[in-house]
């Protein structure tokens, strides 16, 4: 952890490999593939789709081995799912936890097509003492001095949730290498780390999984001695397309006086979005935006818009905040934690009206 604001070369190296979604891409309901954010802990593996296979086993009666064609021949589902990295907003925390230094745009919405996980899991007949399902990727690396494959578990109930997809297509084409070719897990509503890419094994277990990415990483805690709680569903959040034109270096916005139409998106992994508000004075006063919720796409972000009458020349700060059905509203200031997870504080866009 660093108390200085300077970004280190290590952080810059991560930031150059893993990219965010440019905010103007919020214009698309389904994010074009190259504009979807990207997060790869280790290296993108080269996978031969002919040799590749998926092992489903562990505490089950009928383990199975599936090839890509086997998965493609099963009844398919296609779901629009908004995915956000749990570390989104990390670089805005003080002091800044040292990891991928996201600002606010580590998010995207994909149209994921594949086989429903529940059908495959049930076909293996998990044991009565099964508690979790472990998803193993092909990528290897060292993290926290532990050499590992990227692996995450889900409680059996969550894995059996009809929403989980073993996806082999993104936006109508085979998964690109960086997003998990040939197969990845998609868990609607959960933060990004749950969606294991380059899937090679699904293992039913009778004891809670204690791998690094569950027991050490992705826990909300104040210090390393604390067990903390696991990061699970995405918190309520909204973002706007910054209006006007940007200054090249600072990306500060320049807007002409008069009416300005502001567009954005809002999502929550816990419950549907019920409200989005906009502030043009840095979060002091708020007005309701118009929310376009699509009940057919529960797991995709909702669009919203707001007409701003930019009457006064000078500097101001635009903000937006969403509220979901549980009543969770975005805070004005982030809550700090060791790993820099779940920062859903309101977005701030400095603007010059001319
Ligand atoms: N195998 C594997 N799966 C992974 C990761 C990884 O490094 N390896 N990164 C996870 C994290 S932290 C996130 S936020 C999402 C990012 O998915 P995307 O790159 O397709 O946007 O993938 C998750 N799945
Ligand atoms: Mo992530």
| Main sheet overview | 6 strands, mixed
Total beta strand runs: 22
Q: What is the tally of helical segments?
A: 5
Q: What is the CATH topology assignment of the largest domain? A: Sulfite Oxidase, Chain A, domain 2
What is the overall shape? globular
Helical fraction equals under 10%
- Average of the residue pLDDT scores: 97
What's the CATH architecture of the largest domain? Alpha-Beta Complex
Rg, nearest Å: 21 Å
Could you characterize what this model shows?
The structure is a single chain. With 354 residues, the chain is mainly beta. It folds into 2 domains: 228 residues, Alpha-Beta Complex (Sulfite Oxidase, Chain A, domain 2); 117 residues, Immunoglobulin-like. It contains 5 helices and 22 strands. Strands 14-15-22-21-17-18 form a 6-stranded mixed beta sheet, with no helix packed on it. Strands 2-1-10-5-6 form a 5-stranded mixed beta sheet. Strands 3, 4, 7, 8 and 9 form a 5-stranded antiparallel beta sheet that branches. A hairpin with a 6-residue loop joins strand 14 and strand 15. The chain is globular and about 70 Å long. It starts with 8 loop residues before the first helix and ends with a strand. The model has no long low-confidence stretch (mean pLDDT 97).
């Amino acid at each position: 952890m660093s108390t200085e604001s300077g970004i280190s070369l290590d952080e810059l190296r991560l930031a150059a490999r893993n990219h965010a979604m440019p905010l103007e891409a919020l214009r698309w309901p389904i994010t074009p593939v190259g504009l979807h954010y990207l997060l790869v802990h280790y290296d993108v593996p080269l996978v031969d789709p002919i040799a590749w296979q998926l092992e489903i086993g562990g505490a089950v009666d009928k383990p199975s081995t599936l090839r890509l064609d086997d998965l493609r021949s099963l009844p398919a589902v296609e779901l629009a799912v908004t995915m956000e990295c749990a570390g989104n907003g990390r670089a805005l925390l003080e002091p800044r936890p040292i990891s991928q230094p996201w600002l606010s745009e580590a998010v995207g919405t994909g149209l994921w097509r594949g086989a429903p996980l529940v059908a495959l899991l049930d076909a293996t007949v998990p044991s009565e003492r099964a508690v979790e399902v472990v998803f193993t990727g092909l990528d290897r690396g060292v993290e926290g001095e532990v050499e590992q494959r990227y692996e995450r578990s889900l409680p059996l109930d969550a894995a059996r949730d009809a929403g989980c997809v073993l996806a082999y297509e993104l936006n109508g084409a085979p998964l690109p290498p960086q997003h998990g070719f040939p197969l990845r897990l998609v868990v609607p509503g959960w933060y990004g780390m749950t969606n294991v890419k380059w899937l090679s094994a699904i293992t039913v277990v009778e004891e809670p999984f204690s791998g690094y990415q569950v027991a050490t990483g992705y826990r909300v805690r104040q210090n390393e001695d604390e067990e903390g709680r696991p990061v699970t569903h995405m918190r309520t959040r909204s973002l706007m397309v910054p209006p006007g034109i940007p200054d090249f270096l600072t990306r500060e916005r320049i807007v002409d006086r008069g009416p300005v139409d502001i567009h954005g998106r809002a999502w929550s992994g816990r419950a549907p979005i019920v409200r989005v508000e906009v502030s043009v004075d840095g979060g002091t006063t708020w007005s309701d935006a118009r929310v376009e919720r699509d009940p057919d796409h529960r797991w995709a972000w909702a669009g919203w818009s707001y007409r701003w009458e930019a009457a006064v020349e000078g500097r101001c700060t635009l903000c937006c905040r969403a509220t979901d059905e549980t009543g969770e509203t975005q805070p004005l200031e982030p809550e700090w934690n060791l790993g820099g997870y779940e920062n859903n504080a309101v977005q701030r866009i400095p603007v010059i009206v001319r």
